[in-house]
Specification:
Multidrug efflux transporter AcrB transmembrane fold; MMPL family transporter; four-stranded antiparallel β-sheet; alpha+beta; cell membrane; Alpha-Beta Plaits; transmembrane helix; elongated; 765 residues; MMPL_dom
Length: 765
Amino acid sequence: MLSGLGRLINRRRWPSLVLILIMTVVAGVWGLGVFAKFKEGGFEDPNASSTLVAKLGATYFGSTNPDVLVLYTSDTMTVDDPRYEASVVTTIARLPKAQVEEVISYWSFNGEAAHSFASHDRHSTFVAVKLHGEDGATQIENYHAVKERLAAPGLRVQYGGAVPLGEEFGEQVVTDIVRAETITALPLLILLVVLFGALTASFLPIAVAVFSTVGGLAVLHVVTYAADVTSFALEVVTMMGVGLAIDYSLFIISRFREELQRGMAAQGLPQGKPWKRERDKASRKAAKTAYKAALKPVRETALAATMATAGRTIMVSGITVSAALAGLLLFPQMFLRTIGLAGIATVMVAVFGATVLLPTLLALLGPRVEFGRMPWRRPTSKRAQRDPDSGFWYRLGHSVMKHPLPYFAVVLVILGVMFGPFLNVQFGSVDARVLPKDSPTRTVVETVKKDFPNGSAEPIDVVVSGDLIPRDWTPSGKGDPIPPYLEQFRKRLASLPGVTEAQFTGYSGSYGGVRISVTHKYEPMDQHAQDLVTEIRGMSLSKDGYPMHIDVGGSTAAQMDLMSSLMESLPKMALVVGVATFILLFMFFGSIVLPLKAIVMNVLSIGASFGAIVWGFQYGHLAGLLDFTPTGGVEATSMILILAVVFGLSMDYEVFLLSRIREEWDLTHDNRTAVASGMQHTGGIITSAALLFLLVIAAFSMAGITVVKLIGVGMFVAVVVDAALVRSLLVPATMRFMGAANWWLPGFLAGLHARMDLRERTALA
């Protein structure tokens, strides 16, 4: 079927090119709309108790994390100065009600309640602003409508809070991606020229990468109509769109050149423009016509053979990578689900670009794919004339075959050492510290934490609800009698170990609930804080024998719920992805041993990557080099993302290697020869693909957001480990040990495999 597709593309190359160009323009125009549809956050479990508490706070009680936190500072006046009060109070009183729902300031309270709104030196205060708007886009619009009006005469003003933080976060992600693409563009082109050895061949992967990225954005825009999409999805679309498109193009172009040279040699057709040797114009024209006529079937056969071999491998690889990314859809977190959708969409577009767009361009170019040939690719160069049964990969393959045990042992020791730090992993949450050190919103957060009485305290929010909550009581009203059962419960919370204060901070008659904020002396993710959340969740409350509902929120509870959700979903992901990968590789390789080995090898690559992340980010060893603030932990959802993407990429290289080994096995049925020959034919290509992908993702390690750095470093280490150690040394050494068992297929499965065989075939129908 794929060889037929190659022949069809060759015969209809011009209509195919026109249709693809139209698709690209339409996709580009449509894809730009996705930038206005991104949602922030999405790290929480939507079904968790802590998420409900956060929603109730935003809807009924007033969020403990204000939409906008305005920090006012004076060098000479304190908050007790009437001029200070007049400046701030007059400013916030003039805010338009159409955009601002509520404003709380130091002067909204009397006595002790106002204490937390003034800094220790009393020269600074903050104002909490709640904006109108049910969605982030509306709140951002309202924020910009009132931002200039928040400036108070005679005072310095800084802006923080959820809305400015989310907006800056999204803008920084886009800035990081644009910078990464700008930084890597020229080095990537230079490396492509070095690897391909011809200018024309070097530009083809760039064309496929642009098509894949544009197409990925277009599909992502479609996804926004069915689900919320985080701005991190843009990073995945860019990274995988460019990286996979270049990887796939490398395999297609390399195979096409190989098949084209073989076909031209068989027909006795020289490379270049032999008709120019003729002396007269008529002879040159006749020779040119004859050459093109002889070349036409060679080009078509080469393209058909390329599609039947490398094209088939790329399709299987794309499905395998998509299966790994599909595991993210099993998690309830919006962050992971939308990145899974974005990744799958981008992979499929990259596969389409490599198996339709690229063959179309190759059909148009034919031997002209070698135009602009570099000296080392010319037939007269020593490199071009080198015996194929020589060179680094030939020697390495045979060395591994002769001494598999030393290679196996050394690689396992290296991977074990790299994995070691992961045994001490600590998971943390995303906060303002992931932004650059000069971030204005991060500055506000850190100032409040450092200079204000309750700045470092992140309370545990306890919401009590039920039909018997009084409808006519407000905890802030003077002289209102507090219902005894609520006051007793508050005192129980206040008496818990480590608790410094427990007070009523919100009430809703329409919801029938009251919020109690429990302040403690621990850091948010300290084990004592987690124990406190667990203890509160184990408490019960009833009135007149009727039980009340108790929901617990806050940053500590949210992180605990996140980890619980991830640990619950991770086995499902492992099972689904493992089974899907096993079935796909069984169909492709006709073995039940190779798929199991491939999965184990990929886990080793991921383990080494995770260890490097803990060493670099949790321990902070890369903080100086990459310029970020260590938080003593790593963000859990980012690790899950790396797990899925790296598993897919590792399987990508596994498929490339084993497909050629399987091809050689079908020809020789000699395991040792098949493995060595497979390494010889694919080692250089896999290493080149890895180098190109590394260049793409390396720039992300220089991003402004720490989480983006973490993802970039994790993938970088995984690709290096996979290409340099696992795929080049460990896989062939393991296959040498296993011998003919690599290809073992029980009789009862042989018939099943015969009906679903996806193997490459060199012989074409």
